[in-house]
Every structure is written in C-alpha cells, then in structure tokens.
Amino acid sequence: MKKIGLFGGTFDPPHYGHLLMANEVKAALSLDEIWFIPNRIPPHKQDEEHSGSHHRMNMLKLAIEGHQEFHTEKIELERQGPSFTYDTMVLLKERHPDKKFYFIIGADMIEYLPNWHMIDELVSILQFVGVKRHGYKTKSPYPIIEVEAPQFEVSSTMLRERFASGYPTDYLLPEKVKTYIEEKHLYGTE
Questions:
Q1: pLDDT attached to residue 46
Q2: What is the DSSP string of 11-70?
Q3: pLDDT per residue over 146-170, tens digit each?
Q4: Nearest Cα to 2, choosing from 98, 91, 95?
Q5: Which of 96, 128, 140, 167 has the least CB density, counted as fewest CB within 10 Å?
C-alpha cells in the first residue's frame, strides 16, 4: 500500500518553507509521494482574498518541478464552497482505496484541530502529521505524528507583502515562481 502525504493550503504563493516541510515529512515517515492540494476557500480564512486558483496551481506546479515524488492534486479546486478536509478525504479514499494518507499540518494548525469540520470522523480515515514549530504547542486530544524540521521563517503573507512593497524575495521561493508572479503582475508587482 502506497503511503501518501497530503499537504493542503492556499499556496499563495508557494515557497521554500512548504517544500522543506513536505520533504522533511516524506523522509521522516518514508512516504512514497507528497500531494499538494491547493484549496479553493480555506474554512479558517474565508474572508481573505487570494490569487485565482489557476495562478496558485500554476505556481505550485512550477515550485515542485523536478521533484519526482511531489505532485499536485486539484480536488478542492474542482468543488464549490469551503474546502473542508473531511469532504476532500472522503473523495480521495473513494478514488484511491489502495493508498494510506498522512495529512501534513503546521504546528499552528495542531492547536486549531478541535475546530476542524467533522474532526472526529476525519481522524478515523487519515493520520495527521504535525510539523513542530517554535512558539506553538504540539499537544492535541487527537492522534498526531510529530516531525521535526529545520525552522525556515517564511510565509506566503510575508512574501505577498514583500512583492507589494518591492522588497527582495530572493532565496525565499523558487525562481520560476518569482518569475511567474512578476510576469502575471501578482501581489502588486509591476
């Protein structure tokens, strides 16, 4: 049975922090693949505006280019409304009954797990993997495999702000993603 790591998020834009987390979890748990799942409307960020889903998917494809075990999955972009992980997992389990799924979350989401939609049902169909991060608690009433990863303090919010202000973004995200952002004039670039 193939072991698949699932990494959901807005990826607006994807950056080296995402890739680092995915790679560390893949290695720590000997996963076969990592599937990046950009969400249409994250339930915990419904009021935020995001780049169009086609831009986020294109940037994600550029970010993982050359990583044979990294793939994109557009299941949440194909549905309307908030991207609840439970709904996604029901569909993925139906489509891939031969795979075991590990859902990767950052330490900030570990604390938020009790608020997830249908969390009790969700933990029965997947294994959560929490990536430790300084300043966040990793205790949870739910079963979580904890993975240590080098700290790389970058966020999509910080990158959007840097692009908007013209501040450097070198070494924070793949060059092909940066070029795409500039060519498409995303985040206030000219």
A1: 45
A2: -SS--HHHHHHHHHHHHHHT-SEEEEEE-SS-GGGTTS----HHHHHHHHHHHHTT-TTE
A3: 998 898 889 999 999 999 999 999 9
A4: 98
A5: 167
Closest C-alpha to 113, from 94, 86, 95: 86
Token representation of residue 34: 């990592």
Q: What is the helix (H) or strand (E) element at residue 104, kind and residue range? A: strand 99-106
Cβ 22 vs Cβ 190: under 8 Å:
no
CATH architecture of 2-152: 3-Layer(aba) Sandwich (3.40)
Among candidates 56, 94, 89, 63, which has minimal Cα distance to 175? 63
Please state, in angstroms and as integers, the Cα–Cα distance from residue 137 to each residue in 20, 106, 116, following that order: 20, 11, 17
Q: What is the pLDDT of residue 45?
A: 53
The DSSP bridge partners found for residue 39 are: none
Instruction: Flag whether the pTM goes above 0.85.
Output: yes
Below-50 pLDDT ranges, the chain: 46-47
Instruction: Tell me the domain boundaries of the chain.
Output: 2-152
- C-alpha 73/C-alpha 175 separation (Å) is 22
